[in-house]
Amino acid sequence: MEKRIGTVTLLISDRAKAAEVNAVVSTFSDIILCRQGLPFHDRDIAVISLIVEGTPDRINALTGRLGRVQGVESKAVLTKI
Q1: How distant, in Å, are the alpha carbons of 11, 36, 41, 46, 66 from that of 30?
Q2: How many domains is the chain partitioned into structurally?
Q3: Distance between CA 23 and CA 10 in Å, rounded?
Q4: Which of 4, 12, 31, 70 might form a disulfide with 54, Cβ 3.0–4.6 angstroms?
Q5: What range defines the domain where residue 74 resides?
Q6: What pTM did the predictor assign?
Q7: Collapsing DSSP states into helix, strand and coil, what is residue 44?
Q8: Is 66 helix (H, G, I), strand (E, B) or coil?
């Protein structure tokens, strides 16, 4: 399967889950090109943006695993070429 480039955005409403999110992200470090995070200390939420390159199956596996963490929402957008 051909590799694609895309983004994965995470909205973390329970910052206590940060260690669990980091563990999942580390598991998929082979497809992550860049990671950027923005904590909102006054609202107890965080936004993380990942730039990824991998097969759609691998990227969807990352998004699915992150989305199963309670208090975390994840969405992916991939190139079509």
Answers
A1: 22, 16, 30, 23, 16
A2: 1
A3: 14
A4: 31
A5: 4-78
A6: 0.91
A7: coil
A8: helix
